[in-house]
Recover the amino acids of this structure.
């Protein structure tokens, strides 16, 4: 081991959280080192949110041919899709997004070390046979897809994850998707819309991170029109000569390939967390303060996917900024986190905003809902599927949460998140102008439904205007 060197701050990991931390650190000091193992470029840009959305956009564009006849557009049956060209575009734009994330480190190459870092104590790491000490250390090493050990033996030509899916030059005609969280739902529908025969399995009863059964059932009903989907179906995989057999309690199917989307695991293996003199849980994780990112009582901060908290880009970036601020500050500051918001880019899209229904089981709430089957703008666009449910505190009338599987969920979820963060009541929300005809009129219907269940004055007020009971106007 070579002689130890010293610096103020060490950032381990050059993903979203690490780069966000870097920006904060650079504001206060040039005495830092950035250490990264493996490929540079964030998970989001390389194998996550960006390539997946590129694939979804292509899939949705091709899928729209099924609506053409209803619109009076003929000969949709003559359209074909070039899967190889689809994936070539995904990779081309993916590489562009990756290159933009690397711009943060191009001017600091003298402060970047490529190698695997390991803690040797609360203020020391080893990397490439070198010891480095620092006043503060940020661990932002990201995560990787979980693949059960026995499935790994099948081989990477038949077992895919999002780390390998987007590298495919072409796809075989039959695919199973294991896992019905955000990634599984998005990729199952996208692959199906590109013409792949998809069979999807989920061990849980609910889909896409939803906790409201009525909303999850609405999503499942819509998805089941496009591909076979089985919930509460724990799957086992058996390799065959030509593919993989997927076996669950009530179903068995042979496919060419399997996309495994059962979750992600923090990249903390061999990180040396046991040298921090703090207790670790059964997964080897220390207690991390989510508002400061500090491993309590130490000079170590864990941010982003590595913290196993919320593996969402905006949350990961926030954790990086918090960690970066704290390692260059005299004291440790705890910050309020943003209103919870998660979105799944299926069609209909799904989202959870604020508190989920599961988190509100013990609270006194009222629920407003709208079924999009007859919503005017949704019918006009042939997107009239899904359900939105909005949760109000019964005493105050404030909006505290929502779950939805409906058209334009990704946009309405942001409006609701703002309302929750500003502690608006349903009455205040209903005072907002909503244009006609827009999908947000459905959100207004759900707010009206909830508001009528509250004990409130019913004097004339524009926020209490009733619906017309006419599809073209409501």
């Amino acid at each position: 081991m070579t002689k130890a060197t010293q610096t103020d701050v060490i950032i381990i990991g050059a993903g979203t959280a690490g780069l966000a931390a870097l920006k904060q650190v650079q504001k206060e000091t040039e005495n830092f080192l950035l250490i990264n193992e493996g490929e540079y470029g964030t998970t989001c840009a390389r194998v996550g949110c960006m390539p997946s959305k590129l694939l979804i956009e292509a899939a949705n564009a091709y899928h729209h041919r099924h609506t053409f006849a209803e619109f009076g557009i003929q000969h949709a049956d003559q359209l074909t899709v070039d899967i190889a060209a689809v994936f070539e575009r995904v990779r081309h734009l993916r590489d562009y997004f990756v290159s933009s994330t690397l711009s943060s480190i191009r001017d600091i190459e003298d402060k970047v070390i490529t190698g695997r870092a390991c803690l040797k104590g609360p203020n020391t790491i080893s990397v490439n046979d070198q010891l480095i000490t620092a006043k503060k250390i940020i661990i932002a090493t990201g995560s990787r897809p979980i693949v059960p050990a026995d499935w790994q033996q099948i081989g990477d030509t038949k077992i895919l994850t999002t780390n390998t899916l987007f590298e495919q030059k072409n796809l075989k005609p039959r695919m199973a998707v294991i896992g019905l969280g955000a990634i599984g739902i998005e990729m199952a529908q996208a692959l199906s819309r590109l013409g792949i025969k998809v069979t999807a399995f989920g061990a849980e009863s609910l889909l896409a991170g939803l906790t409201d059964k009525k909303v999850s059932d609405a999503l499942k009903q819509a998805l089941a029109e496009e591909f076979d989907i089985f919930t509460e179906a724990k799957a086992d995989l058996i390799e065959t000569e030509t593919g993989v057999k997927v076996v669950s309690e009530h179903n068995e199917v042979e496919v060419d390939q399997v996309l495994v989307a059962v979750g992600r695991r923090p990249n903390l293996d061999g990180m040396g967390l046991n040298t921090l003199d703090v207790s670790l849980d059964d997964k080897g994780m220390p207690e991390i303060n989510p508002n400061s990112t500090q491993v309590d009582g130490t000079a170590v901060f864990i941010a982003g996917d590595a913290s196993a908290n919320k593996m969402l880009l905006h949350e990961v970036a926030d954790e990086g900024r918090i960690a970066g601020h704290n390692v260059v500050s005299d004291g440790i500051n705890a910050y309020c986190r943003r209103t919870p918001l998660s979105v799944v880019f299926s069609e209909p899209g799904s989202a959870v905003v604020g508190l989920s229904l599961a988190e509100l089981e013990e609270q006194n709430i009222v629920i407003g809902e709208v079924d999009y089957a007859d919503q005017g703008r949704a019918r006009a666009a042939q997107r009239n599927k899904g359900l939105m449910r909005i949760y109000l505190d019964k005493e105050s009338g404030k909006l505290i949460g929502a779950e939805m599987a409906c058209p334009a969920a990704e946009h309405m979820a942001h409006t609701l998140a703002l309302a929750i963060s500003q502690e608006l009541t349903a009455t205040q929300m209903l005072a907002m102008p909503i244009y006609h005809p827009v999908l947000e009129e459905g959100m207004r219907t759900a707010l009206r439904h909830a508001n009528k269940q509250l004990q409130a004055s019913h004097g004339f007020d524009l926020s209490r205007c009733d619906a017309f009971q006419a599809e073209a106007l409501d």
